[in-house]
Amino acid sequence: MSNRLPVDRVVDDSGEASWRQSPGGLVTALEPVMRASGGAWVGWVGQPDLEIEPFDENGIRIIPVPLSDSDLELYYEGFSNDTLWPLYHDVIAQPGYHRVWWERYAVVNRRFAEAAAAVSEPGATVWVQDYQLQLVPAMLRELRPDLLIGFFNHIPFPAYGIFSQLPWRTQIIEGLLGADVVGFQRVADAGNFSRAVRRLRGYPTRTPYIEVPGMGDQPARRVIAKAFPISIDVAGFEELAARPEVQERARQIRHDLGDPATVMLGVDRLDYTKGITHRLKAYGELLAEGRLSVEDVTLVQIATPSRERVESYRQLRDEIELTVGRINGDYGTISHQAISYLHHGFPREEMAAMYLAADVLLVTALRDGMNLVAKEYVAARADEDGVLILSEFTGASDELRAALLINPHDIDGVKDAIVRAIEMPRHDRRKRMRSLRKRVAENDVSHWSNSFLTTLRESRGTQTPFGGG
Ligand code: ADQ
Question: Where along the sequence do coiled-coil regions lie (predicted)?
Answer without folding.
Answer: none
